[in-house]
Amino acid sequence: MIKLYDTTLRDGTQAEDVAFLVADKIRIAEQLDELGIHYIEGGWPGSNPKDIAFFKDVKKVSLRQAKIAAFGSTRRAKTTPEKDNNIRTLIQAEPDVVTIFGKTWDFHVREALRISLEENLELVNDSIAYLKKNISEVIYDAEHFFDGYKANPDYALKTLQAAADAGADCIVLCDTNGGTLPHEIPEIMAQVREAVATPLGIHTHNDSDCAVANTLIAVAAGAEHVQGTINGFGERCGNANLCSIIPSLKLKMGQDCVSDDQLQRLRTLSRYIYELANLVPNKHQAYVGNSAFAHKGGVHVSAIQRHPETYEHIRPERVGNVTRVLISDLSGRSNILAKAQQFNINLDSKDPVTQEILEKIKELENKGFQFEGAEASFELLMRRALGTLRHFFSVIGFRVIDTKRHEDEMPWSEATVQVKVGGRIEHTAAEGNGPVNALDHALRKALENFYPQLKEMRLLDYKVRVLPAGKGTASVTRVLIESGDKSGRWGTVGVSDNIVDASYQALLDAIQYKLLKDREL
Fold this sequence. Notes:
16 strands, 3-stranded antiparallel β-sheet, TIM Barrel, alpha/beta, 40% helix, Double Stranded RNA Binding Domain, 8-stranded parallel β-barrel
């Protein structure tokens, strides 16, 4: 059985723009445990107060199966393990497991540590031996192993033998600089297996875009322990991505690492960690991304409706994802019918309305509309064509004013709107920190008297794209808006050569969709 070792809370936080509070790290640890991760590396307790606090707080959490690992280095030169502050701090953190790294590349020994090659072997051996007397399980990360092996294979293997002789429970071969290519892994691992009998692990970085491939081929070559991070977070180009590795191991290589039920949590966990890191999820990420099972070409859509395997390498539900049919100017009838089915709209392939919708989409996309990120606008378009969209309200008109009173002050925005609901007209105004924000506030202020549920709705994301028309400031603008409430999110789109008008279109669709959605619940 392959053991999964997650280092999101330590190696992952070394990524640019990634930082977690102690409370975040505890919540992530609980979710990793639910996924079935065997080891959770909480941090380096000797490096900062936050990691010390994590090891203290995590003891209050009941984990189902995961072991908490503390990370550190071998002892410093010219001291003994029992006197080394780093070693003492690792033990004082009282983790289930300690993982320490040591030098395997002779270049690093000479230039970074500035000690003899023999002294480095002693550091590795006696640090592990001392830790084994105090901690039941010790994992040794052989830092820069592949680079070290290619530079001086005899010495690199000697460092592993020093770790094995000291009683390391697992020796992890690290591609720390991320420059190793997949074809190099099997031969090197074969030489390692001849030199040591200790179980082997793999830890790779993505600087050559090969971290996942290197990890999988290492497992095929005998690695029993796999290290990585959720979403591939890590410094420089990142670490091996467990969101790709785990399903590949289980579904493609038949390796028993998590249960079927646990695997279905993968996408949820991926997005959960993106949210805590305050990062936008990578929609093109394998297995768990929004686009991983999205189909745009009409031929593809027609085929997957008959047999999903024609254009999907696994069933997306196995990793908690879903098949998505995108609507674009490449669409055929199959896309329209599949999308209608998703929205519980009854369409027939022979219905003239289907062709009407298709022509309308192509006409709008020719003007600059895009429905791939605006499925709510597309559903409204279909319902309008079918005549099934309820008329909730109409906007008689609006006005937006931007005023800058003083040079050193920010502009001030005010929007005035008139809406008609039934036979009643509501005329109101609202301020905002920009014209679109003011218009959003004014529209909802006018309509909340009639539809109180709009108070639950929030504008979550706002994107502006100037379409390439060569007109400079007079160019056509596309606005994509993501809105949400307590039960979900939805996207809408507007296009105009006036950015406020494009925003107005998208805002209007967002409000219409909220009212439609709530009416059907």
